[in-house]
Amino acid sequence: VQKTGLEAVEVSTGNYPGDAHCKIDELLNSKEALKRFKEEFKKRNIEISALSCHGNPLHPEESIARNHREITRKTFVLANRLGIERVALFSGCPGDSDSSKYPNWVTCPWPEDYSKILKWQWEEKVIPYWQKEAKFAQEEGIEKICFEMHPGFVVYNPETLLKLREAAGKAIGANFDPSHLFWQGIDPIAALKKLKGCIYHVHAKDTKIDDYNTSVNGVLDTKSYGDEINRSWIFRTVGYGHDASFWKYFISTLRLCGYDYVLSIEHEDSLMSANEGFQK
Length: 280
Description:
By secondary structure, the chain is of the alpha/beta class. It has 10 helices and 9 strands.
């Protein structure tokens, strides 16, 4: 790892990404385990850029929401004990009512049912929950809650991120992953400028748009990520969706916006092994 020039890692504590490298209960309940965990990074001269607990704490299925909320709170506590100021996560997505079983991601205003659902979600679920959690995080010394703008969740673009920030405070910021913006038709450069001052963490991940498939079917694509040849877009290693000139501009714009922190490599390129993608 050190030979590649890697200086920091983002460590998952649970929820969707799993907890393969960080057993949160063990670390919270054992000072010795916490000490050993810290030493593993110290002896390699690698820092932890952020803890991540990407889940859906607003899931309408209570058992799922409860588990994801518990992991999220424990992650704030663990970050405090490790001296880490950033936690990366998703906003979550509620259902359409208190009796829902599955999340309902609203993507259009009509029929009016959808507008009513969206209003209810934000007013009754999203804002109250994150106001409370932002306060809890700040009490634990976490001033940078890094939301990944991800379709399928209520925060999926700069507008929705800023809406939540306005409601829940300045601890709310972006875990800026351009791969989820490309296929929505968002220019990541413009998005960076819009979010100047609240970019807290950055993922290095690319997206390749298939011009033919997109011309036929558009960008909303529910086919399996493994059906690469038929999808409108797929996630790629940096440089395999957009060329070096874009990424130079991207890095330069980050600096112009005052961001001087890590680029966290997220490998979801189904055409390369993790090691191949990391090396490239």
